[in-house]
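It would be a great kindness if you could assist me with a short task in structural biology. A protein sequence and the C-alpha coordinates that stand for its backbone fold form the material at issue. I should value your view on which stretches of the chain appear to form regular backbone elements. The record follows directly beneath this note.
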Amino acid sequence: MLERYSLSPMKEIWGEEEKYNRWLTVEIAVIKAFEDKAIAPRGIWKKILKKVSINIDDISKIEKKVDHDVIAFIKSITKNLNDEEERFFHMGLTSSDIVDTAQAMALKSSGELLLLSLDDYLASLKKMAIKNKNIITVGRTHGVHAEPTSLGLKFLNYYSEMLRNKDRLKRAIENISVGKFSGAVGNYANIDPKVEELALKKLGLKPSKITTQVIQRDVHSEYVFVLALIGASIERVATEVRHLQRTEVLEMQEPFKVNQRGSSAMPHKKNPILCERLCGMSRLLRGYVSTSIENINLWHERDISHSSNERVILPDSNLICFYMLKKVKYLVDNLIINYENINENFNDSYNLIYSQKIMLKLIEKGLTREKSYKTVQNIAMDSWNNKTDFKKLIKEDEEVSGLLTEEEFKEIFNPEAFLENINEIYKRFSIKDGGKR
Protein backbone atom coordinates (compact mmCIF):
# COMPACT_ATOMS: atom_id res chain seq x y z
CA MET A 1 0.00 0.00 0.00
CA LEU A 2 1.15 3.54 -0.69
CA GLU A 3 2.70 5.19 2.35
CA ARG A 4 0.40 8.16 1.59
CA TYR A 5 -2.62 6.14 2.72
CA SER A 6 -1.01 3.91 5.34
CA LEU A 7 -1.86 4.95 8.88
CA SER A 8 -0.55 3.66 12.21
CA PRO A 9 -1.13 1.33 13.94
CA MET A 10 -2.65 -0.59 11.01
CA LYS A 11 0.43 -0.29 8.83
CA GLU A 12 2.62 -1.85 11.54
CA ILE A 13 0.41 -4.94 11.62
CA TRP A 14 1.16 -5.57 7.96
CA GLY A 15 4.85 -4.68 8.04
CA GLU A 16 7.47 -7.24 6.98
CA GLU A 17 9.09 -7.52 10.40
CA GLU A 18 5.75 -8.02 12.12
CA LYS A 19 4.89 -10.74 9.62
CA TYR A 20 8.03 -12.70 10.56
CA ASN A 21 7.35 -12.07 14.24
CA ARG A 22 3.96 -13.72 13.80
CA TRP A 23 5.54 -16.66 11.96
CA LEU A 24 7.94 -17.12 14.86
CA THR A 25 5.11 -16.82 17.39
CA VAL A 26 3.20 -19.54 15.53
CA GLU A 27 6.22 -21.88 15.40
CA ILE A 28 6.89 -21.39 19.11
CA ALA A 29 3.22 -22.05 19.97
CA VAL A 30 3.47 -25.44 18.27
CA ILE A 31 6.67 -26.28 20.17
CA LYS A 32 4.93 -25.33 23.42
CA ALA A 33 2.09 -27.69 22.45
CA PHE A 34 4.67 -30.40 21.77
CA GLU A 35 5.92 -29.89 25.32
CA ASP A 36 2.41 -30.10 26.71
CA LYS A 37 1.94 -33.42 24.91
CA ALA A 38 5.39 -34.63 26.07
CA ILE A 39 6.59 -34.83 22.48
CA ALA A 40 9.37 -32.29 23.07
CA PRO A 41 11.54 -31.86 26.17
CA ARG A 42 10.18 -29.48 28.78
CA GLY A 43 11.52 -25.94 28.45
CA ILE A 44 12.93 -26.33 24.96
CA TRP A 45 10.78 -23.51 23.51
CA LYS A 46 12.40 -21.09 25.97
CA LYS A 47 15.88 -22.18 24.90
CA ILE A 48 14.93 -21.72 21.25
CA LEU A 49 13.40 -18.30 21.84
CA LYS A 50 16.58 -17.07 23.54
CA LYS A 51 18.73 -18.07 20.57
CA VAL A 52 16.64 -16.97 17.61
CA SER A 53 16.39 -13.52 16.07
CA ILE A 54 14.70 -12.14 12.97
CA ASN A 55 17.05 -10.78 10.34
CA ILE A 56 15.07 -9.57 7.37
CA ASP A 57 18.14 -9.02 5.21
CA ASP A 58 19.38 -12.55 5.91
CA ILE A 59 15.97 -14.05 5.13
CA SER A 60 15.87 -12.09 1.89
CA LYS A 61 19.33 -13.32 0.85
CA ILE A 62 18.40 -16.94 1.53
CA GLU A 63 15.09 -16.58 -0.32
CA LYS A 64 16.93 -15.46 -3.45
CA LYS A 65 18.68 -18.85 -3.42
CA VAL A 66 15.85 -21.17 -2.35
CA ASP A 67 12.97 -19.20 -3.92
CA HIS A 68 10.69 -20.02 -0.97
CA ASP A 69 9.99 -17.48 1.75
CA VAL A 70 9.04 -19.91 4.54
CA ILE A 71 12.07 -22.11 3.93
CA ALA A 72 14.25 -18.99 3.93
CA PHE A 73 12.67 -17.94 7.23
CA ILE A 74 13.28 -21.35 8.80
CA LYS A 75 16.91 -21.57 7.59
CA SER A 76 17.65 -18.08 8.90
CA ILE A 77 15.86 -18.42 12.21
CA THR A 78 17.39 -21.79 13.12
CA LYS A 79 21.04 -20.91 12.38
CA ASN A 80 21.97 -20.68 16.05
CA LEU A 81 20.01 -23.71 17.26
CA ASN A 82 21.65 -27.00 18.20
CA ASP A 83 20.48 -30.28 16.64
CA GLU A 84 17.98 -31.13 19.36
CA GLU A 85 16.41 -27.67 19.28
CA GLU A 86 16.29 -27.50 15.51
CA ARG A 87 14.51 -30.82 15.04
CA PHE A 88 11.41 -29.57 16.86
CA PHE A 89 11.22 -26.37 14.85
CA HIS A 90 8.56 -26.73 12.11
CA MET A 91 8.30 -30.47 12.86
CA GLY A 92 5.36 -32.12 11.06
CA LEU A 93 4.20 -28.84 9.59
CA THR A 94 3.77 -27.45 6.11
CA SER A 95 4.39 -23.85 5.09
CA SER A 96 0.69 -23.00 4.95
CA ASP A 97 0.26 -24.12 8.54
CA ILE A 98 2.46 -21.19 9.47
CA VAL A 99 1.40 -18.67 6.83
CA ASP A 100 -2.36 -19.17 7.09
CA THR A 101 -2.36 -19.24 10.87
CA ALA A 102 -0.18 -16.14 11.14
CA GLN A 103 -2.34 -14.44 8.53
CA ALA A 104 -5.43 -15.21 10.61
CA MET A 105 -3.75 -13.48 13.54
CA ALA A 106 -3.09 -10.41 11.39
CA LEU A 107 -6.65 -10.32 10.08
CA LYS A 108 -8.08 -10.72 13.57
CA SER A 109 -5.92 -7.87 14.90
CA SER A 110 -6.82 -5.71 11.91
CA GLY A 111 -10.51 -6.44 12.27
CA GLU A 112 -10.47 -5.54 15.95
CA LEU A 113 -8.71 -2.26 15.09
CA LEU A 114 -11.33 -1.55 12.44
CA LEU A 115 -14.08 -2.22 14.97
CA LEU A 116 -12.66 0.43 17.29
CA SER A 117 -12.49 2.95 14.44
CA LEU A 118 -15.99 2.01 13.37
CA ASP A 119 -17.28 2.70 16.87
CA ASP A 120 -15.65 6.14 16.80
CA TYR A 121 -17.31 6.90 13.47
CA LEU A 122 -20.68 5.64 14.73
CA ALA A 123 -20.44 8.07 17.65
CA SER A 124 -19.87 10.94 15.22
CA LEU A 125 -22.86 9.95 13.07
CA LYS A 126 -25.10 9.60 16.11
CA LYS A 127 -24.07 13.03 17.37
CA MET A 128 -24.94 14.61 14.00
CA ALA A 129 -28.24 12.74 13.87
CA ILE A 130 -29.22 14.14 17.25
CA LYS A 131 -27.96 17.66 16.56
CA ASN A 132 -29.88 17.97 13.28
CA LYS A 133 -32.96 16.00 14.20
CA ASN A 134 -35.32 18.98 13.97
CA ILE A 135 -33.62 20.75 11.06
CA ILE A 136 -36.02 20.75 8.12
CA THR A 137 -34.48 20.23 4.71
CA VAL A 138 -35.85 19.31 1.34
CA GLY A 139 -35.63 15.63 0.54
CA ARG A 140 -34.45 14.69 -2.94
CA THR A 141 -35.29 11.67 -5.05
CA HIS A 142 -33.62 11.30 -8.46
CA GLY A 143 -31.78 14.51 -7.51
CA VAL A 144 -35.11 16.40 -7.65
CA HIS A 145 -36.93 18.08 -4.76
CA ALA A 146 -39.35 15.56 -3.24
CA GLU A 147 -40.80 16.39 0.21
CA PRO A 148 -39.51 18.01 3.42
CA THR A 149 -37.56 15.78 5.75
CA SER A 150 -35.19 16.01 8.71
CA LEU A 151 -31.49 16.64 8.12
CA GLY A 152 -30.85 14.44 11.13
CA LEU A 153 -32.52 11.52 9.38
CA LYS A 154 -29.79 11.59 6.74
CA PHE A 155 -27.19 10.94 9.41
CA LEU A 156 -29.42 8.43 11.19
CA ASN A 157 -29.64 6.50 7.92
CA TYR A 158 -25.85 6.37 7.70
CA TYR A 159 -25.71 5.38 11.38
CA SER A 160 -28.14 2.52 10.81
CA GLU A 161 -26.18 1.21 7.84
CA MET A 162 -22.91 1.33 9.74
CA LEU A 163 -24.45 -0.56 12.66
CA ARG A 164 -25.20 -3.39 10.25
CA ASN A 165 -21.64 -3.21 8.98
CA LYS A 166 -20.42 -3.51 12.55
CA ASP A 167 -22.42 -6.71 13.02
CA ARG A 168 -21.09 -8.05 9.71
CA LEU A 169 -17.52 -7.24 10.67
CA LYS A 170 -17.89 -8.98 14.03
CA ARG A 171 -19.09 -12.14 12.27
CA ALA A 172 -16.32 -11.92 9.68
CA ILE A 173 -13.68 -11.58 12.41
CA GLU A 174 -15.14 -14.60 14.17
CA ASN A 175 -15.03 -16.64 10.95
CA ILE A 176 -11.51 -15.54 10.01
CA SER A 177 -10.06 -16.24 13.47
CA VAL A 178 -9.17 -19.83 12.66
CA GLY A 179 -5.81 -21.48 12.18
CA LYS A 180 -4.53 -24.87 11.09
CA PHE A 181 -1.72 -27.32 11.83
CA SER A 182 -3.12 -30.16 9.77
CA GLY A 183 -0.20 -30.78 7.45
CA ALA A 184 0.42 -30.97 3.73
CA VAL A 185 -3.08 -32.02 2.64
CA GLY A 186 -5.06 -31.33 5.81
CA ASN A 187 -5.40 -34.90 7.12
CA TYR A 188 -3.15 -34.64 10.24
CA ALA A 189 -0.95 -37.46 8.91
CA ASN A 190 2.14 -36.10 10.67
CA ILE A 191 0.75 -34.12 13.58
CA ASP A 192 -1.75 -34.78 16.36
CA PRO A 193 -4.96 -32.69 16.16
CA LYS A 194 -4.57 -32.15 19.91
CA VAL A 195 -1.31 -30.33 19.21
CA GLU A 196 -3.20 -28.06 16.84
CA GLU A 197 -5.88 -27.39 19.42
CA LEU A 198 -3.36 -26.56 22.16
CA ALA A 199 -1.19 -24.36 19.93
CA LEU A 200 -4.10 -22.40 18.48
CA LYS A 201 -5.52 -21.77 21.93
CA LYS A 202 -2.22 -20.14 22.87
CA LEU A 203 -2.56 -17.93 19.76
CA GLY A 204 -6.13 -16.89 20.48
CA LEU A 205 -7.52 -18.78 17.49
CA LYS A 206 -9.84 -21.73 16.89
CA PRO A 207 -9.04 -24.76 14.75
CA SER A 208 -10.59 -24.72 11.30
CA LYS A 209 -12.97 -27.68 11.27
CA ILE A 210 -11.56 -28.98 8.01
CA THR A 211 -8.82 -27.81 5.66
CA THR A 212 -6.81 -28.84 2.67
CA GLN A 213 -3.24 -27.62 2.70
CA VAL A 214 -4.80 -24.21 3.30
CA ILE A 215 -7.74 -22.72 5.15
CA GLN A 216 -10.66 -22.47 2.75
CA ARG A 217 -10.68 -19.05 1.10
CA ASP A 218 -14.39 -18.27 1.40
CA VAL A 219 -13.72 -16.90 4.91
CA HIS A 220 -11.11 -14.52 3.55
CA SER A 221 -13.46 -13.42 0.78
CA GLU A 222 -16.23 -12.79 3.30
CA TYR A 223 -13.91 -10.59 5.33
CA VAL A 224 -12.81 -8.54 2.29
CA PHE A 225 -16.44 -8.24 1.17
CA VAL A 226 -17.43 -6.77 4.54
CA LEU A 227 -14.63 -4.21 4.28
CA ALA A 228 -15.94 -3.31 0.81
CA LEU A 229 -19.43 -2.86 2.27
CA ILE A 230 -18.01 -0.50 4.90
CA GLY A 231 -16.26 1.37 2.10
CA ALA A 232 -19.47 1.60 0.09
CA SER A 233 -21.33 3.00 3.12
CA ILE A 234 -18.62 5.62 3.54
CA GLU A 235 -18.81 6.38 -0.17
CA ARG A 236 -22.53 7.03 0.21
CA VAL A 237 -21.81 9.77 2.77
CA ALA A 238 -19.03 11.23 0.62
CA THR A 239 -21.25 11.27 -2.46
CA GLU A 240 -23.98 13.13 -0.58
CA VAL A 241 -21.53 15.79 0.57
CA ARG A 242 -20.14 16.10 -2.97
CA HIS A 243 -23.62 16.75 -4.37
CA LEU A 244 -24.53 19.19 -1.62
CA GLN A 245 -21.22 21.06 -2.00
CA ARG A 246 -22.00 22.01 -5.61
CA THR A 247 -22.05 25.78 -6.14
CA GLU A 248 -25.75 25.69 -7.09
CA VAL A 249 -26.63 23.90 -3.84
CA LEU A 250 -23.93 24.59 -1.24
CA GLU A 251 -25.80 23.11 1.71
CA MET A 252 -22.73 21.26 2.98
CA GLN A 253 -18.97 21.57 2.56
CA GLU A 254 -16.13 19.35 3.60
CA PRO A 255 -13.59 21.10 5.86
CA PHE A 256 -11.05 23.38 4.17
CA LYS A 257 -7.86 24.02 6.14
CA VAL A 258 -6.34 27.48 6.62
CA ASN A 259 -3.44 27.03 4.19
CA GLN A 260 -5.19 24.55 1.91
CA ARG A 261 -5.40 25.22 -1.84
CA GLY A 262 -8.10 23.82 -4.08
CA SER A 263 -6.58 24.34 -7.51
CA SER A 264 -3.18 25.18 -8.95
CA ALA A 265 -4.90 27.33 -11.58
CA MET A 266 -7.98 28.81 -9.89
CA PRO A 267 -7.39 30.43 -6.48
CA HIS A 268 -11.11 30.57 -5.65
CA LYS A 269 -11.64 26.80 -5.67
CA LYS A 270 -12.76 24.75 -2.68
CA ASN A 271 -13.05 21.26 -4.07
CA PRO A 272 -14.47 18.21 -2.22
CA ILE A 273 -11.17 16.38 -2.61
CA LEU A 274 -11.50 14.29 0.55
CA CYS A 275 -14.94 13.03 -0.47
CA GLU A 276 -13.70 12.27 -3.97
CA ARG A 277 -10.72 10.40 -2.50
CA LEU A 278 -13.04 8.31 -0.35
CA CYS A 279 -15.19 7.46 -3.38
CA GLY A 280 -12.09 6.38 -5.32
CA MET A 281 -10.83 4.21 -2.48
CA SER A 282 -14.21 2.52 -2.19
CA ARG A 283 -13.89 1.50 -5.84
CA LEU A 284 -10.52 -0.05 -5.03
CA LEU A 285 -12.01 -2.08 -2.17
CA ARG A 286 -14.76 -3.41 -4.41
CA GLY A 287 -12.14 -4.55 -6.89
CA TYR A 288 -10.45 -6.62 -4.19
CA VAL A 289 -13.71 -8.48 -3.55
CA SER A 290 -13.64 -9.92 -7.06
CA THR A 291 -10.08 -11.16 -6.58
CA SER A 292 -10.90 -12.68 -3.18
CA ILE A 293 -13.81 -14.61 -4.69
CA GLU A 294 -11.53 -15.96 -7.43
CA ASN A 295 -9.26 -17.28 -4.69
CA ILE A 296 -11.93 -19.65 -3.41
CA ASN A 297 -11.42 -21.93 -6.41
CA LEU A 298 -8.05 -23.62 -5.89
CA TRP A 299 -6.86 -26.82 -7.54
CA HIS A 300 -7.33 -30.05 -5.59
CA GLU A 301 -5.82 -29.74 -2.10
CA ARG A 302 -4.19 -26.42 -2.98
CA ASP A 303 -2.34 -24.36 -5.54
CA ILE A 304 -0.69 -20.96 -4.96
CA SER A 305 -2.68 -18.83 -7.40
CA HIS A 306 -4.14 -17.05 -4.36
CA SER A 307 -0.82 -16.43 -2.64
CA SER A 308 0.57 -13.64 -4.81
CA ASN A 309 -2.57 -11.52 -4.84
CA GLU A 310 -3.29 -12.01 -1.14
CA ARG A 311 0.05 -10.35 -0.38
CA VAL A 312 -1.60 -7.25 -1.90
CA ILE A 313 -5.33 -7.43 -1.30
CA LEU A 314 -5.33 -8.46 2.37
CA PRO A 315 -2.95 -5.79 3.68
CA ASP A 316 -4.32 -3.15 1.33
CA SER A 317 -8.00 -3.78 2.03
CA ASN A 318 -7.39 -3.38 5.76
CA LEU A 319 -5.21 -0.30 5.31
CA ILE A 320 -7.72 1.31 2.94
CA CYS A 321 -10.70 0.60 5.18
CA PHE A 322 -8.85 1.91 8.22
CA TYR A 323 -7.84 5.07 6.34
CA MET A 324 -11.41 5.60 5.14
CA LEU A 325 -12.89 5.23 8.62
CA LYS A 326 -10.43 7.73 10.07
CA LYS A 327 -11.01 10.25 7.29
CA VAL A 328 -14.80 9.98 7.17
CA LYS A 329 -14.93 10.57 10.93
CA TYR A 330 -12.83 13.70 10.39
CA LEU A 331 -15.22 14.70 7.59
CA VAL A 332 -18.36 14.29 9.69
CA ASP A 333 -16.84 15.89 12.80
CA ASN A 334 -15.76 18.97 10.81
CA LEU A 335 -18.55 19.12 8.24
CA ILE A 336 -19.68 22.64 7.37
CA ILE A 337 -23.46 22.83 7.20
CA ASN A 338 -24.91 25.97 5.60
CA TYR A 339 -28.28 26.16 7.32
CA GLU A 340 -29.25 29.37 5.51
CA ASN A 341 -28.71 27.72 2.13
CA ILE A 342 -30.75 24.72 3.25
CA ASN A 343 -33.63 27.09 3.94
CA GLU A 344 -33.16 29.01 0.67
CA ASN A 345 -33.06 25.83 -1.42
CA PHE A 346 -36.12 24.60 0.42
CA ASN A 347 -38.01 27.67 -0.82
CA ASP A 348 -36.83 27.24 -4.42
CA SER A 349 -39.42 24.56 -5.12
CA TYR A 350 -42.33 27.04 -5.39
CA ASN A 351 -44.01 24.98 -2.64
CA LEU A 352 -44.39 22.04 -5.03
CA ILE A 353 -43.04 19.78 -2.28
CA TYR A 354 -46.53 19.86 -0.70
CA SER A 355 -48.26 18.30 -3.73
CA GLN A 356 -48.86 14.91 -2.11
CA LYS A 357 -50.37 16.51 1.01
CA ILE A 358 -52.87 18.37 -1.21
CA MET A 359 -53.69 15.22 -3.18
CA LEU A 360 -54.31 13.16 -0.04
CA LYS A 361 -56.49 15.88 1.47
CA LEU A 362 -58.63 15.97 -1.70
CA ILE A 363 -59.00 12.19 -1.54
CA GLU A 364 -60.04 12.59 2.10
CA LYS A 365 -62.67 15.07 0.91
CA GLY A 366 -64.20 12.49 -1.42
CA LEU A 367 -62.40 12.82 -4.75
CA THR A 368 -61.05 9.68 -6.42
CA ARG A 369 -57.31 9.20 -6.35
CA GLU A 370 -57.10 9.59 -10.13
CA LYS A 371 -59.13 12.79 -10.07
CA SER A 372 -57.10 14.19 -7.16
CA TYR A 373 -53.78 13.30 -8.79
CA LYS A 374 -54.70 14.82 -12.14
CA THR A 375 -56.04 18.01 -10.57
CA VAL A 376 -52.93 18.57 -8.47
CA GLN A 377 -50.55 17.58 -11.26
CA ASN A 378 -52.08 20.11 -13.69
CA ILE A 379 -51.67 22.92 -11.17
CA ALA A 380 -48.17 21.70 -10.26
CA MET A 381 -47.02 21.71 -13.88
CA ASP A 382 -48.41 25.22 -14.29
CA SER A 383 -46.46 26.28 -11.19
CA TRP A 384 -43.22 24.69 -12.44
CA ASN A 385 -43.45 25.92 -16.01
CA ASN A 386 -44.32 29.49 -15.05
CA LYS A 387 -42.22 29.63 -11.86
CA THR A 388 -45.30 30.56 -9.87
CA ASP A 389 -46.02 29.72 -6.23
CA PHE A 390 -47.88 26.41 -6.08
CA LYS A 391 -49.69 27.39 -2.90
CA LYS A 392 -51.03 30.53 -4.58
CA LEU A 393 -52.29 28.61 -7.63
CA ILE A 394 -53.88 25.91 -5.47
CA LYS A 395 -55.76 28.49 -3.43
CA GLU A 396 -56.91 30.21 -6.64
CA ASP A 397 -58.33 26.99 -8.07
CA GLU A 398 -62.07 27.06 -7.48
CA GLU A 399 -62.53 23.31 -7.19
CA VAL A 400 -59.74 22.88 -4.63
CA SER A 401 -60.42 26.03 -2.64
CA GLY A 402 -64.07 25.09 -2.44
CA LEU A 403 -63.15 21.87 -0.65
CA LEU A 404 -60.51 23.14 1.80
CA THR A 405 -60.68 25.61 4.66
CA GLU A 406 -58.00 28.17 5.45
CA GLU A 407 -57.04 26.15 8.51
CA GLU A 408 -56.57 23.07 6.34
CA PHE A 409 -54.37 25.03 3.96
CA LYS A 410 -52.16 26.05 6.89
CA GLU A 411 -51.95 22.46 8.04
CA ILE A 412 -51.01 21.21 4.56
CA PHE A 413 -48.32 23.83 3.94
CA ASN A 414 -46.64 23.38 7.32
CA PRO A 415 -43.20 21.77 6.81
CA GLU A 416 -42.99 20.63 10.44
CA ALA A 417 -45.92 18.30 9.82
CA PHE A 418 -43.56 16.11 7.83
CA LEU A 419 -41.50 15.48 10.97
CA GLU A 420 -44.33 14.60 13.34
CA ASN A 421 -43.38 10.91 13.46
CA ILE A 422 -39.60 11.06 13.43
CA ASN A 423 -39.39 10.48 17.19
CA GLU A 424 -40.64 6.97 16.51
CA ILE A 425 -37.73 6.40 14.12
CA TYR A 426 -35.19 7.69 16.63
CA LYS A 427 -36.64 5.46 19.34
CA ARG A 428 -35.80 2.44 17.20
CA PHE A 429 -32.16 3.33 17.81
CA SER A 430 -32.69 4.02 21.52
CA ILE A 431 -32.21 7.74 20.89
CA LYS A 432 -34.59 9.83 22.97
CA ASP A 433 -32.64 13.09 23.24
CA GLY A 434 -32.07 15.75 20.62
CA GLY A 435 -35.17 17.82 21.27
CA LYS A 436 -38.88 17.16 21.18
CA ARG A 437 -41.42 17.87 18.51
